[in-house]
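Box 3.1. Reading complex inputs
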Amino acid sequence: MTATTEEELRLLAAKAGLGALPAAYQGELLSAYRHLEVMLARIAQDRPHGDEPAHVFNAATFARQG
Amino acid sequence: MTEFLSLAEAARRIERRDLSPVELLDACLARIDAVDARLGSFVTLTRERALAEARAAEAAIMAGRYRGPLHGIPYNLKDIFETRGIRTTAQSKLLADNIPAADCDAQEKLSAAGGVLLGKAATWEFAHGGPSWDVLFPPCRNPWDLDKDPAGSSSGSGASIAAGLVLGSMGSDTGGSIRGPAAANGVAGLKPTYGRVSRRGVLPNCFTHDHAGPLAWTVEDVAILMNLVAGFDPRDPGSVELPVPDYTAALTGEVKGLTIGVPYRWIEEEVPASAPTRAALDAALDTFRALGATLRLVELPPLHRYEDAKKIIAMAELYAIHGPDLRKRPELFGASLRYRIIAGGLIRAEDYIQAMRLRTELARAMQAVFAEVDLIMLPSGEPAKTLQPQPPESLFTRIGYTTAFNVGGNPALSLCMGFNEEGMPFSLQIAGRLFDEATVLRAGDAYERVTPWRDRRPALVG
């Protein structure tokens, strides 16, 4: 996997509303993302279509909330 | 009264009217006054409120209106549990003046049971980033050695119980935050099954993996607290409506016939336990074998896969919670927490969903193992080390023995299994089938009955 370039990261950060972060925090963001993308690369992307995610939504519970 | 009492023993004496709730509270307050300026386990002490509650409990009991085993017992709550009229800060400058208008579910239940709320316990910032020296309060220390780390994020809960400042506490566990501090401080702490204990009114870390649960000196104490806080709450979307057994009735002392799985590949190859920890574990397993349990090897997916799923999901959810503050006032976050969540804003929806699908796969793999064994046993971690700032990237690189059970959703208990050469506690982790906290607690209690580890308290408190 090709590492995300700093320019690409700046674009992603701007999309996330983090474009105006002070410079010191932008450094943190870039540093943290380098670790994150290693984990992201390990996550399978080619699962069977029907594989359900583990979201919690129990209709019975919401019905009880009234 | 200067002796240390478990919650269960204090309750028995209070019920017999051999011990006054006011006398018990005074003993706790005296210890707090003596040591907590150095220990830092409380961030807010509700002394006057506690005195009023203890006096009310005493009057009620003397009038024959005993409510049960928490009546007149001092406890605290991790400072992410919202308390009406009492500051709830999450150890963060962002919530320095936050005074909730309502109690969390746990406080409603513990108060109704007649407990005496003594205050709010130290945590890591929003139960995630720490230890930190740049947040609202300094980090808590370990009562067995003030230079040692009490672990997090339920640091104050574990430390205050070990020091005898309270007899019970409620903590939260997203990747090990009940079991880690229970282990480091030599107490018992249970992460219940996901959905067993309401999270309503508990400030979130990561919705998908957050669990609320009790810490106390003994497993019996934890069972008493579980009897009070477990149960369906329609106002917690993750809550599950299933019958709740009597957890104290399950404490028979018997483990004969149970099958215990040990994930040797995890502790020998993937994250090798130190030789002293391994020796302590082997001795604990020998104890269970002597009590009539059967041991066998179990094979689970690699720990790092559980960590990947948990951390990607957590970072995305943490960013959803804290993104607005990160954009507006990032300087109010401690550096540790900020580093741990800031990149969450860059996670694509597809990656989050794929991590959620991985979670399903890993949780199913864990339940498949529990079809063959009653319990899984392994260390909770290594004994506490020096309290010092951790490299911020450690969140991404550290792999532990606790997170897999958050991903699986299974109940998991930490309890003391001896002490190392420095006098720091070893800890055994016992995990069980979904919603089978009763068997987990039964095994933990049986072990405590035949081992001497509950006879020792930190020298700090004499």
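In summary: Helices of chain A lie at 6-15, 23-42, 59-65.
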